[in-house]
Amino acid sequence: MALSDRAHGSLLLLLVAFVFLYYTVWTLLLPFLVDSSPVHAWFPSREWAIRIPTLLVVLGLSAIGLFLGACIVRDVNLQAGKRKRGRRSIGPQ
User: Fold this and answer.
1) How far is the first Cα of the chain from the last one, in angstroms, to the nearest whole number?
2) Residues sharing a CB contact under 8 Å with residue 43, sequence separation 6 or more, in sequence order
């Protein structure tokens, strides 16, 4: 049985809240802890705190660009097809 919309939304909200808290602790609180703290073992290197969001932004913008490009090409092809059909019907019968 599929999840209801409310349950699905609640799960997504919990996931996003967890990711936000994890990233916030990783980037804002971890630098203030001593390097020998066992909490450092729970997180990747701090350089990945910049690399991962940068990669996600690049991938997201690329997906948006590809989608828009595909829509533009499809519209141009549809308009060209309409023009060809219109020219055929104008001629003598």
Assistant:
1) 60
2) 25, 26, 30
